[in-house]
């Protein structure tokens, strides 16, 4: 999520708290009409984003030289604020993510349009513009700027954003910094961690308070239940109220045999048996479940999901090889998300082919610039966010009478 400072920050911090989302700033400066600075004739943003409202420019009789002078002043202020708000920290990675752009309201829409353009330029896969108040025709004014629009109030009579606030005093830089600090303070959900015995070794079971579902991690070659990459994803799932089970599909001795590492039948059978054990485990019994498969673990997830007694709610593959279980791909019914690094070209193509053979709801998400291990800055955070969004969307809890209540 990104806020348009200054006024958007106090609004965005409340939304970020409700969604449990990280918050960054999208620094935009209004280019105001000379002598009427509150009337926007355009806007400028980071990364060179620029919007000109030609209707206002013409109506106010502003010359190109006058516009350029105001623009230069606002770009200098923009640079100052961006440096102050981030205090040397890089912007939050947006590539491949759904990004919520939040402001305190929309009037002409110039600032919102510049913000959406900047967010798209940074690689956002989906942009949602959300404000408390906007004119009734705001979506037509901003058509194409975002993929979705949300406004709490869009009255037919609209003069200015400030008329809808009891207190519309100028937000200070200190208040923006306080909002960012509050939104991004470390959140550590209460999670009970214990071990569960599997034939291949102990499983690490983490259960947050009031779990909404459980995700079993199927590891492939080069990783295991203690992999920092998998634990990072698991921690993100915990914040969404999802329990996790991390375990090894092979014993240490078996893992030395490369044939077994690439045997989808063996790995998938182990995962199916582990699933039955997990579904009988009292803290997890009755919860909807899903699979997170990494590398050859993705093939195990596909194999297990196609078993007759399997009913996974969702599958996510990270840099996976679902193609190794090609014969079972058409049998999978669980919504499946395939996440692949853009630099991992061979695996990207294998996943494209695998997706073409799926008959269930599916998506392929390529993380730009990421390699097979997603070791690049921000890449694994993107994986964790994408996986969490997918599981939160598709893992559901059955209610009495057979109805399903979505999380």
UniProtKB/TrEMBL annotation:
Keywords: Transferase. It holds the Pfam family Pribosyltran. GO terms for molecular function: transferase activity. Residues 2-136 form the Phosphoribosyltransferase domain. InterPro entries: AB_hydrolase_fold, PRTase-like, PRTase_dom. This is Phosphoribosyl transferase. It comes from Kitasatospora cheerisanensis KCTC 2395. The lineage of its organism: Bacteria, Bacillati, Actinomycetota, Actinomycetes, Kitasatosporales.
């Amino acid at each position: 999520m990104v806020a348009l400072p200054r006024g958007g920050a106090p609004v965005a911090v409340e939304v970020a708290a409700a969604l449990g989302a990280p918050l960054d700033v999208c620094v935009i400066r209004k280019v105001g009409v000379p002598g009427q600075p509150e009337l926007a004739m355009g806007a400028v943003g980071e990364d060179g984003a620029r919007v000109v409202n030609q209707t206002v420019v013409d109506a106010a009789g502003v010359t190109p030289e006058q516009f350029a002078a105001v623009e230069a002043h606002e770009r200098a202020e923009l640079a100052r604020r961006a440096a102050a708000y981030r205090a040397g920290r890089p912007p939050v990675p947006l590539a491949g993510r759904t990004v919520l752009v939040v402001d305190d309201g929309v009037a002409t829409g110039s600032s919102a349009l510049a913000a959406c353009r900047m967010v798209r330029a940074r690689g956002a896969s989906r942009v949602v513009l959300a404000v408390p108040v906007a004119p009734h025709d705001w979506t037509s004014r901003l058509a194409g700027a975002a993929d979705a629009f949300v406004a709490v109030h869009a009255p037919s009579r609209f003069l200015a954003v400030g008329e809808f606030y009891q207190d519309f005093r100028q937000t200070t830089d200190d208040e923006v910094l306080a909002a960012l600090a509050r939104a991004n303070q470390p959140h550590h959900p209460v999670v009970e961690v214990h071990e569960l015995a599997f034939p291949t070794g102990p499983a690490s079971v983490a259960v947050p308070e009031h779990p909404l579902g459980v995700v079993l991690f199927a590891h492939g070659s080069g990783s295991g239940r203690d992999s920092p990459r998998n634990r990072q994803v698991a921690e993100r799932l915990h914040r969404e109220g999802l329990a996790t089970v991390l375990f090894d599909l092979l014993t240490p001795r078996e893992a030395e045999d490369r044939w077994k590492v690439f045997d989808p039948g063996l790995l998938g059978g182990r995962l199916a048996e582990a699933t039955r054990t997990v579904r009988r485990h009292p803290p997890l019994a009755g919860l909807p479940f899903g699979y997170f498969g990494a590398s050859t673990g993705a093939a195990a997830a596909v194999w297990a999901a196609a078993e007759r007694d399997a009913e996974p709610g969702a599958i996510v593959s990270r840099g996976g090889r679902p193609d190794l279980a090609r014969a079972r791909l058409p049998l999978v019914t669980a919504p499946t998300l395939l996440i692949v690094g853009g630099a991992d070209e061979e695996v990207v193509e294998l996943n494209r082919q695998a997706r073409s053979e799926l008959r269930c709801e599916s998506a392929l998400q390529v993380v730009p610039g990421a390699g097979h291990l997603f070791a690049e800055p921000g890449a694994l955070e993107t994986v964790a966010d994408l996986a969490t969004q997918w599981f939160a969307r598709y893992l559901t809890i059955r209610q009495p009478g057979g109805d399903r209540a979505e999380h």
